[in-house]
């Protein structure tokens, strides 16, 4: 039995690289599509935001001499490429999907608005919302928080390569311990890097809980939505 009726799934662009150095790993893409199909078949309304770090990251581009605004715009276009790839993989599995873009670029995707997104979700389509917020200086974490709040999602699921939130980076510190759940205030106090500050504050102020979990382990997405205690719940 599904725990939530409508979710916002945030996927990282870097995760789409799989075993590659950059770009999209077709195996990882298809694994993600299969997991998303499983939860769509449970009757859950699925909105998705994907990052673009596997193709281009505006902030690192700015550090190498790119104008920050143009760098961020390139990053937004990278998220559209990833969104089209995921949409294609889902369509191949028989899942109805729509790509909405924060910047006008028909016929690549429909121009995003909240009511159209909700209408499609209620029709059983997986809605992939690309192009970030459409503005520079905002990350895709902030874009996913914004979209999650707009579509009135019950929860934001942040799929990462780590199985939750730890006291420190578990890949660097073997003594790091995992939280089963944590409050937004505690994240601030401990200075934990779950998402950027703007994104975290938006979720806190709009009472949107977040579950951080390992998306790279097949079946985990369905487990989270079936109520299994994997990952870390962030709440007020």
How does this model look, in words?
A 9-stranded mixed beta sheet has the order 4-3-5-2-1-6-10-11-9, sandwiched between helices. Helices cover 37% and strands 19% of the residues. 43% of the residues are buried. By secondary structure, the protein is of the alpha/beta class. The mean pLDDT is 94. Helix 1 crosses helix 3 (68-92). It is globular and about 50 Å long.
Helix amount, in percent? 25-40%
Strand order of the largest sheet: 4-3-5-2-1-6-10-11-9
Q: What's the total count of β strands?
A: 11
Strand content: 15-25%
Number of helices: 8
Mean of pLDDT = 94
How big is the Rg? 17 Å
Short description:
With about 240 residues, the chain is α/β, with parallel strands linked by helices. The chain has helices at about 25-40, 60-65, 70-90, 115-120, 140-150, 185-190, 195-205, 220-225; strands spanning about 5-10, 45-50, 95-100, 110, 125-130, 155-160, 165, 180, 180-185, 210-215, 230-235.
Strand-helix topology:
Blueprint: E1 6-11, H1 26-40, E2 45-50, H2 58-63, H3 68-92, E3 97-101, E4 110-111, H4 114-122, E5 126-130, H5 140-150, E6 155-160, E7 165-166, E8 178-179, E9 181-183, H6 184-190, H7 197-205, E10 210-214, H8 220-225, E11 232-235
Parallel strand pairs: 1-2, 1-6, 2-5, 3-4, 3-5, 6-10, 9-11
Antiparallel strand pairs: 7-8, 10-11
